[in-house]
Every structure is written in structure tokens, then in C-alpha cells.
Amino acid sequence: MTTSLNSSTRRRLQKLNQIPCVWEGDRRTLSAPSPRGDAEAGSECILWVDGSQGVVRAMDVVATDSGPEVVVRTLLRAMEHPNSPAKPARPQKIVVRDREIQFYLRGVLQELDIAIDYVPDLPLIDELYRGFEEFGEAHPPELPPQYATALKKKAFEIWQAAPWELLEEHQIIAVKLNHFDIETLYISVMGMLGMEYGILLYRSAESLQRFRAKVLIEEDATEQLEEAFLKQDCLFLTFERSEEMDGGGEFVDLADLPLSEIEPSFGNIHPLEGLRSVLYEEEASAVFVALEALNRFLRNERRQLGGKTFPEISRNYRITLPSSQSEKKSQPLSVTVSTLPNLATELEEMADAVATEAIEAEDLDDMPLFQSLRDDLIPEDSFLSLGVVSWEMVQQLRQKVTHQQVGKPTEAGDGLPVILIQTSRPKAKEAIEALLSAGGLRGIGFNPGADPFGGDRYDLGVLQTNNGELFLFGEFLEDDPVHVVARKKWNDRCKHTKGYCGLIVARGLMGASRGQPQMKDMMALFEARSLSSKDLGIGMLQLMPQIE
Asked: What's the pTM?
């Protein structure tokens, strides 16, 4: 351990003006956040204070296991580079309340003509630390203590219920409270796109409508979106990946992670308060009741909510607030949970109107008269297969997922022949939206293709949308025995259905269901016509070299 300053440092300090004052110095364990806000568990704060002038000359936060040299380091800064308005100087006297620090400083500061004494109390530093503790106590916890455990438990119940698998953001659920100065909370569920997961609880339908209208109009304007975000009037629950498991900025769909890696967060947004990651007692009470009511509603009405339409449903519940053992159990609160299909339709029409205006604003004259075979619909890393689904499963899919049907297939044979596209949830959502925006799927066919340079011949899988566009979904070697068998089965099954087939878009590419998606993984079923190469009308396609 170094116990003396080097000669150049000592000479530099001796040149400082020595002032007739007494400085207090100490290091103490932090029991509350320091004013600098960088204290953590296992930290200590070092303070050097000029008792004569009543100013803090230097302060530092160090690890508890740091040696005594950190005290000297902070003292030298107090002498040479003090906090404003103090000026560089040497004190005549230093007082400390720790004998070990006293003896250590005497050894290090010899030849600087500074007296170093021990005192049992440091009144100025004691007063500062009391202020630190009061400052820390003035910061409320993120959740009221009596609600912290209960709310986090409710949050994980919501996560496991996965309402985003049933509800889109515009499909609003109303929870009528008539308590906590809140008449009704309007719940919007985030997560169907697989990007952000959470529950927004708006205090008024007007706030929800204003925000969604602003988002639609200012979709690409970041500053305006931030402003609109802060003008919401809502409580919120969001889910994020826990910091310990942070993937370093790489996008991960939270739905693919185990529960242990999910972290819920609560907060409040108000036009006059902005964003606040703290819930006070009345807010926590309202959120608890709303989440419990939503959870019961999802459990009771999951089948209806998972249907093709957003039905009108209303249910009443009695919910008891959590209470500590010392408190008397509170009386149950009566709440009503209802779907709002009319509001959902209004919000959906609002989005459609904005989209229509955007399309009409495009310069249609620049569109080519002939559109070639496109390959930007199906994600490159998708799992692709030709198969069949039973008619029983077809009936379930028609009720539970995004569904579009062209004509009515004959329910014969072992089921509906389908092309299965399995990818990640966000990419599946994009593909579904692209198909719907193109008017839906008209048909599925196969068209011959050739590589004039390599000599290979291909069977190209093609999707045709109702607006006439053609999309490539797969390239199969014409003489591949596996594909030959699959194509024969495809043709036979299409004959049984009188020329009908389907496209299933599923999620779960990286999960355990890769290649064998379950019902919960399937996001859309498009029933369409089986098209021949003549129906497609594009003739033999040839692979062209890419010239750069």
C-alpha cells in the first residue's frame, strides 16, 4: 500500500494557498441514493467539506472494498480541483471520525503542514447524510408495497393468457369501475405483431381515439409520434426482456422466451405529467382490478374472442383488492367488462380511410403496365411444405384465425391441400397484411421454369392475388423425387376438392413447433383456387443472370 505522495505532487500541493479553515472528511456506506444518483448496493460515499465556508469541496462514490487511498484521491481533488464556488487551496486542519483514516492521512500528508485530528462527530457531514437519506425516502417505489407482489403476479397471469393472440389493438375492452375516480378504463392490447407486448388502459375513449388518429397520420414523423405518445391519458403494463438476459440489441420476439426472462413494467402517461414509471396507491388499485377483470374475461370468453368476428359480450365480476395481514379484508368491488365492437369498427375504418388516402395520393402513372413474378412476399428463411389439413381442422381455422375463402371446396378426400408457410410472428403478420392489401389470394399454381445455363428445370410455386399480382413462394427441382410425390398428392387432392386448395401462414419458425405448427401457431388460412400453368398465363420462365 502506498503511504506517501511522490515528490512532484507534494511540491505542487505545497504551492497552493493555505487557508485558515477546518475541513471535515469521511467515508460512509450509502443507505439511500446519493445526489449524483449513481449509488448502488455495496457503495460508499467519500465527502470532503469545508466547515468554515459550509461547502462540499469534493465527493465521490466508491466500492465498499476500495482501499484508503481513495480517500486521499478525493482529498487531492478537493484541494486542486474543488467544486464551484470553492477555489484551490490547502486547509490548515482536517478532522475525521475514523482513527484508521487519521493515521493513514498523517503518513501521506506529511510535509504539507496540515494538522489531522480525530473527532467523534462531524456535524456538517452528519447533516448532509441526513439530507441524502431524506432525499432517498422522498422517492416513492415503482409500486405501492401492498400491491407490488399482487400486481406482478397479475402481470404474469396476463402474459400467460396472451390476449394479443385473440385481440388486435383496435379491438377495445371496456372495464367499468366507478371507483378510484375512474368511471371506465378502455383497454387496448399490444402484441399481435410480435413487436411490443402490453396493456394500455385509457381513462377515456377520446384519448384513445385521438392517439390512434395521430399515429395513423404521423406514422413516419418521429417527433410528432413522441408528442402524441406523451399526450395520452392512460395507465400501462408493458413487458420487456429482463436486463440480465438482454440480447445486446438484437431483436427477439418475447413470445419465444421463457417466463423467467420476461419483466413486467407499470406506469402512467398524462398530457401534463408525461411518462411516469411509478403507480400511486389509487392507480395501482385501478390497474389491479382492471387486470384481474380482464384475466377472468379472457378465461371465460376465450372461445368467442378467438372467433372470426369481434363479438359483443358483457360480463360482471366481483373483485377484492389485496390487503396486508394487518389490514381488514376489503369489500369486493363490482365491475363490468364489455367488448366494444362499434368502437373497434370505428377505429378500423379510421385506419382504412387513412390507408386509402395514401394509396390515392400515389402517382399511379408511374406503375408499369406489366408486373413480373415477384419474390418479396414470402420471407427467405421460411419453412415451406406441401401438405394437407383435415376438414375438422379447416373448420376450426375458419373460426379462429384470419380467414379468406374463394368459393366453397368440396369436402372430400383426406382434407384440404395446403401450402404451409412458417416464419416468425412479425414476418407472418407482414405477409398476411400484404396478401389482404392485395385483395386476398385468388389461386395457387405451379409454373415451369428453366436455368438455361445450368440445364436444370424447375417447378415454380406461384401465388396469384386478386389484384392480378404473381408471387413466387417456392422453387422445386422438377425431377426431385420428394417433390414429384408431393405434387402428385397435391394434384389428386385438388381433384377431390373440385379445384380448391389453401395457404396457411404460421408462426413459430425457431420454436419447438418448427415444421409441425400447432393450431395456436397458425395465423391465417387463405382458401383459393388451384391454378394450372395455363391459368397463370406467364409461360416458361427462365433464370436470368444478375449483372452488377
From this structure: 0.50
